[in-house]
C-alpha cells in the first residue's frame, strides 16, 4: 500500500483555543468538519477533536490516521499480515475510511480520497 502521510489525533476540551494554538505552531489554517457529534479541525498534521466523552473515549483508542492511496489496497495488505478490519470502509468527508487493528494490537484509521461508488 502507498502511505501518503499520517495525522496525529488530539482530543481537546476547547476546540477554538486549541485551533489557535495549533495554527500558530504549524503555520497551517484549520479545516473544520463534523464526525457525528464530534467537532474536528484538521491543522497541519493534527486532527483536533472535541465532543462528548463517550465518543472521544472511542476515538482515543485510535493511534493515528494514515492517508493511503487506496483503502482497498490497505485492506489487502492488512489482512495479509494478520491485521483485522474493525470498521469500514465507510464514506468520509473526502473519500473512504476504515479502522484496523494491527497484529500487535495497535489501532489505526486509514483514509483515502476515493469516493465510494
Write the layout of secondary structure elements.
Layout: E1 3-11, H1 15-26, E2 31-35, E3 38-43, E4 46-50, H2 53-59, E5 64-68, H3 71-80, E6 84-91, E7 96-101, E8 107-112
Parallel strand pairs: 1-4, 5-8
Antiparallel strand pairs: 1-5, 2-3, 3-4, 6-7, 7-8
Number of separate domains:
1
Count of DSSP helices? 3
CATH homologous superfamily (4th level) name? 2,3-Dihydroxybiphenyl 1,2-Dioxygenase, domain 1
Distance between the termini: 21 Å
CATH architecture: Roll
Uncertain stretches: none
Order of strands in the sheet with most strands = 2-3-4-1-5-8-7-6
What order do the SSEs take from the amino end to the carboxyl end, as H and E? EHEEEHEHEEE
Principal-axis shape equals globular
Protein name: Glyoxalase/bleomycin resistance protein/dioxygenase
Domain VOC: 1-113
GO molecular function, one term: dioxygenase activity
Keywords: Dioxygenase, Oxidoreductase
Amino acid at each position: 500500500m502507498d502511505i501518503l502521510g499520517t495525522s496525529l489525533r488530539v482530543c481537546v476540551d476547547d476546540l477554538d483555543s486549541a485551533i489557535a494554538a495549533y495554527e500558530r505552531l504549524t503555520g497551517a489554517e484549520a479545516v473544520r468538519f463534523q464526525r457525528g457529534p464530534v467537532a474536528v479541525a484538521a491543522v497541519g498534521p493534527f486532527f483536533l477533536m472535541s465532543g462528548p466523552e463517550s465518543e472521544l473515549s472511542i476515538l482515543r483508542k485510535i493511534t493515528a490516521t494514515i492517508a493511503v492511496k487506496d483503502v482497498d489496497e490497505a485492506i489487502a495488505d492488512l489482512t495479509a499480515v494478520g491485521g483485522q478490519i474493525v470498521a469500514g470502509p465507510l464514506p468520509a468527508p473526502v473519500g473512504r475510511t476504515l479502522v484496523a487493528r494491527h497484529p500487535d494490537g495497535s489501532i489505526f484509521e486509514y483514509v483515502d480520497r476515493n469516493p465510494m461508488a
